[in-house]
From TrEMBL:
Name the record gives this protein: Glutamine amidotransferase
Keyword Iron-sulfur: no
Keyword flag Lyase: no
InterPro entries to which the protein is assigned, alphabetical: ChyE-like (IPR044992), Class_I_gatase-like (IPR029062), GATASE (IPR017926)
Residues of the Glutamine amidotransferase domain: 49-192
TM region positions: none
Length: 254
C-alpha cells in the first residue's frame, strides 16, 4: 500500500505526536503507512503527491482568518495553499481536519471567519441527505458525537462544494470538494487521550476559558465519540490501495 501523507503544523511536540498517534490508531495504520511532514519546522520539500494514497491535513493552532500572522504561519499557509491547489486541480484523495476547513475553504474561494467558532467540547454531528448518500460515510449513523474546538469556520462554501454534515452551532461540519476531497470541521481522529493532551497544551490559547480547564476536561470525558473515528478508517480503507477509480464508480453509482 502506498503511504498516506500527513501535513502537520503543530509546533508543540506533545500535541503533534498525539495527533499522529491518533491517526495511526483510528486509521489502523503502521508508522510507515503515514508519512508526517511538520510544516511549522521548515519549508515543504518537493514531493510527488501521486506517490501517496491520499493527503491528510492535520489540525493546527493557526487560524486562517487571523488579522496578524507570524512569519511561520504565513509560510505554512503558503506551502499548504500550493498543495491544496494541486489536490483540488487533480481531485486527489484528501482528508482535511479542522484547520483544513480554513485552508481549503479560503484557498478554494469560500469565506472563512469567526461566526461559527465552537469552544472545546463534543458536538452532535448530523449527516445531510448528501452525507447519507456519500459512500465514505456509509458505515456512520445519521447522527453521532465528535470533538470540536475552533475559532473559525466556513460561512460561505467554495463553489461546487457539497455539505455532508452539520450541527446546531456550526452549519458546515463537513463538506466534499470534487469527488475525493473531504473536509471536516470536527475531529474524527480525536479521542479522549488526544483531546486531553490538546486541552493541556492549548489551555491559554483561547479555545475556552483557561480558568475552566477542569470543567472542560469533565465534559469531554463524558462524551462518546467512538463512532466518529470510523471516518478515519473509512478514508484509509477507501483510498489505501490506490482505489481512486473504484471510489469514483461508487460515488457515481450513488
Amino acid at each position: 500500500m502506498r503511504p498516506f501523507l500527513l501535513l502537520a503544523s503543530r509546533a508543540e511536540d506533545a500535541a503533534a505526536d498525539e495527533e499522529y498517534r491518533s491517526l495511526l490508531r483510528h486509521g489502523a495504520l503502521a508508522p510507515g503507512e503515514l508519512v508526517r511532514v511538520r510544516l511549522e519546522a521548515g519549508q515543504m520539500p518537493p514531493r510527488d503527491l501521486t506517490e501517496y494514497a491520499g493527503v491528510i491535513i492535520g489540525g493546527s493552532p493557526f487560524t486562517v482568518s487571523d488579522a496578524h500572522k507570524s512569519p511561520v504561519q504565513r509560510r505554512v499557509e503558503a506551502d499548504l495553499g500550493l498543495i491544496v491547489d494541486e489536490v483540488i486541480r487533480r481531485d486527489l484523495p484528501m482528508l482535511a481536519l479542522c484547520y483544513g476547513v480554513g485552508i481549503v475553504g479560503a484557498r478554494a474561494g469560500g469565506v472563512v471567519d469567526a461566526t461559527y467558532g465552537e469552544q472545546t467540547s463534543a458536538a452532535r454531528i448530523e449527516l445531510t441527505p448528501d452525507g447519507v448518500a456519500d459512500p465514505l460515510l456509509a458505515d456512520l449513523p445519521t447522527a453521532f458525537e465528535a470533538y470540536v474546538g475552533h475559532k473559525e469556520a466556513v460561512t460561505r462554501l467554495p463553489a461546487g462544494a457539497t455539505v455532508l454534515a452539520t450541527s446546531a452551532t456550526c452549519p458546515v461540519q463537513m463538506y466534499r470538494l470534487g469527488r475525493h476531497g473531504y473536509v471536516t470541521q470536527f475531529h474524527p481522529e480525536m479521542d479522549l487521550a488526544s483531546v486531553t493532551t490538546r486541552i493541556e497544551v492549548y489551555r491559554d490559547s483561547g479555545y475556552f476559558d483557561a480558568a475552566e480547564v477542569a470543567a472542560v476536561l469533565d465534559r469531554v470525558a463524558r462524551a462518546d465519540v467512538t463512532t466518529a473515528h470510523a471516518l478515519v478508517r473509512a478514508f484509509v480503507h477507501r483510498y489505501g490501495n490506490g482505489a481512486t477509480a473504484r471510489a469514483d464508480a461508487e460515488l457515481l453509482a450513488g
